[in-house]
UniProtKB/TrEMBL annotation, chain A:
PANTHER family: ABC-TYPE MULTIDRUG TRANSPORT SYSTEM, PERMEASE COMPONENT (PTHR43229:SF6), NODULATION PROTEIN J (PTHR43229). This is ABC transporter permease. Its main location: membrane. It comes from Paenibacillus solani. It is found in: Membrane. Keywords: Membrane, Transmembrane, Transmembrane helix. GO terms for cellular component: ATP-binding cassette (ABC) transporter complex.
From TrEMBL, chain B:
Gene3D superfamilies: P-loop containing nucleotide triphosphate hydrolases. The keyword Nucleotide-binding applies. It comes from Paenibacillus solani. It comes from the Bacteria. Signal peptide: none annotated. Residues 10-234 form the ABC transporter domain. One of its GO terms (molecular function) is ATP binding. Keywords: ATP-binding, Nucleotide-binding, Transport. This is ABC transporter ATP-binding protein. InterPro entries: AAA+_ATPase, ABC_transporter-like_ATP-bd, ABC_transporter-like_CS, ABC_transporter_ATP-binding, P-loop_NTPase. The keyword Transport applies.
């Protein structure tokens, strides 16, 4: 079988499953949009520049949504497929493990893109957020690409033995990262100890790139470096765990 | 019976698998020939599934070598020639039975047609249209079998295939396996039912505590299992008597049951002579020609307690 044919087949299979399971999509969209509505329309945050705040918080919520999809839906799915014996069965078939993994990453990317588009549209509809075409595209692209370290977290969660544990742990990590990284409230509004911690969180730098773009700046070098560092650590960890599980 | 051609399709060479400090499989070697039907027979925990997992490349060996079609089980070209029905029932959410089978067919260069697969696995049109996750346990087993044969493999693995199946389903399953064997497919299955191994296989590998303790035709194995034994009561330190008996040529096992010592041996005369020569106060001696089922139950029970 040519690899290309296998890739197409696998992506088709994963897409079909994604479309038929709107549950995940709904949750990764409903909460961020609700938050966006509350913190830009209902609660008065006393921001000096309302337009700037609405654009900033839109980026927070788009990153928040994509981060959740990357950590939760990928991680829990991987555990489910292993617990049900499906992942093991796949290793007996001639499908290369890399293609199986690619299929998963492909469908994640499609979901992330969907989250970004829907939340951006929501921002436009709710507050009439206006950015230049370049800013819309670049911030969307940033969120899409910089989500990779969180996919690696999802893969790590995916090596857990039970769905319940994976679900609990991924929820904890997701919300913890969102809060400490300033996605819910800007970390400038937090106590200084929280600010110090937050500046080392991958979520802070994930949001940070997009916040810079809507301010009219380029993402900082520190954003790139911290995210790349986390990615490297997560990948090493996940390779190590996979090797260990195979040996058992 | 299908004819085997002495062409090796699967091979374990001096394979050991450690789980922590426990040896699940200990120095096992065997070769499976093309066209043969082989049963790996043994009680739960004897290392049967571990052996299959290593043959399939799902678990790494601790020592030794595994060869499938002369290559590594991880080789994709090799995997195109094998099919397996594992113990865990595999399903995928969001897909219908028909769709899953078709996707899996797509992984192989020369798959069977959906009609052939449905026919062999006994999946009805209604079942094919069902969501895979909504199927009953029995239906999922049929799907699992369908996936094993989907790629038209040369070598088929069935790990405890009939556990949880009723008598009718069991008979149907073996009938189909026989059909596949008649087409020249090589079949390797694990079971803890002696009857199944005897009915289906032309060769039995008897697993016991991680080792192959017997390897031969069902007739050979039955002869080996129904060995004669002596049992007696002795007023001496049992451990010492056991030690003595273990040194007697021909004695394969010594165990205690209901206050009596039992020694399994082909040559009961020699064992008795050894006992009397040692001047032991042995009385109430019995010589038994155990039945096949008893012998196998004995093996199973012992193993069951050890686990």
């Amino acid at each position: 079988m040519t690899t290309w044919k296998l890739i197409t087949l696998q992506c088709k299979m994963e897409l079909l499953r994604m479309v038929r399971n709107p549950y995940y999509i709904f949750w990764s969209l409903a909460m961020p949009i609700l938050f966006y509505f509350i913190f830009t329309r209902v609660v008065n945050t006393g921001a000096d520049d309302a337009g700037q705040w609405q654009a900033h918080y839109l980026m927070s919520m788009a990153s928040f949504s994509v981060m959740g999809t990357a950590i939760m839906s990928l991680g829990i799915r991987l555990v489910q497929e292993r617990v049900q014996g499906w992942a093991v069965y796949m290793r007996v078939t001639p499908l290369p493990g890399s293609v199986y993994f690619f299929g998963k990453m492909f469908v994640q990317t499609v979901m992330h893109l969907l989250c970004i588009i829907v939340i951006f549209v929501a921002g436009y509809l709710i507050n009439g957020v206006s950015l230049t075409i370049g800013q819309w595209l670049l911030s969307g692209l940033w969120i899409l690409i910089a989500s990779v370290p969180f996919l690696a977290i999802g893969t790590l969660i995916g090596s857990m033995k039970r769905v319940d544990t994976a679900s609990g742990v991924s929820n904890g990590i997701y919300l913890g990262l969102a809060i400490t990284g300033g996605m819910w409230f800007p970390i400038e509004a937090m106590p200084s100890i929280m600010q110090t911690i937050g500046k080392w969180m991958p979520s802070y730098h994930f949001g940070g790139g997009a916040w810079s773009i809507v301010r009219g700046e380029a993402p900082g070098l520190n954003n790139f470096l911290v995210l790349a560092g986390y990615l490297a650590v997560f990948m090493i960890l996940s390779t190590y765990i996979r090797k260990k599980q195979q040996a058992d | 019976m299908a004819k085997s051609t002495h062409e090796p399709v699967a091979e374990l060479r001096q394979v050991t698998k450690m789980f922590g400090s426990k040896k699940a499989v200990n120095q096992v070697s065997f070769t499976i020939e093309k066209g043969s039907i082989t049963a790996i027979l043994g009680p739960n925990g004897a290392g049967k599934s571990t052996a299959i997992s290593m043959l399939l490349g799902l678990k790494d060996v601790s020592e030794g070598e595994v060869l499938l079609f002369g290559g590594s089980p991880q080789d994709l070209r090799v995997r195109e020639k094998i099919g397996a029905m594992l113990q865990e029932v595999s399903v995928m959410d969001g897909l219908r039975t028909r769709e899953i089978i078709n996707f899996i067919r797509g992984y192989y260069p020369n798959p069977l047609s959906l009609e052939e697969i449905a026919d062999l696995s006994g999946l009805t049109t209604e079942e094919l249209n069902k969501w895979a996750v909504k199927m009953s346990g029995g239906q999922k087993r049929k799907l699992s079998f369908a996936l094993a044969i989907a790629g038209n493999p040369e070598l088929l693995f069935f790990d405890e295939p009939t556990v949880g199946l009723d008598t009718t389903a069991r008979r149907q399953f073996w009938k189909t396996v026989r059909q596949l064997a008649d087409q020249g497919k090589t079949i390797l299955f694990t079971t803890h039912y002696l009857q199944e191994a005897d009915d289906m296989a032309d060769r039995i590998l008897l697993f016991h505590q991680g080792q192959v303790t017997a390897d031969g035709t069902p007739e050979d194995i039955k002869a080996k299992l129904t060995r004669r034994s002596i049992s007696f009561i002795v007023d001496a330190d049992h451990e010492q008597v056991k030690k003595l008996l273990h040194e007697v040529p021909g004695v394969t096992d010594v165990y205690e049951q209901g206050g009596r010592l039992n020694a399994v041996t082909d040559d009961t005369d020699t064992a008795l002579a050894a006992l009397f020569r040692a001047g032991l106060a042995v009385h109430d001696v019995r010589i038994d020609q155990g039945s096949l089922d008893e012998a196998f139950d004995q093996l199973t029970m012992e193993q069951g307690e050890a686990v």
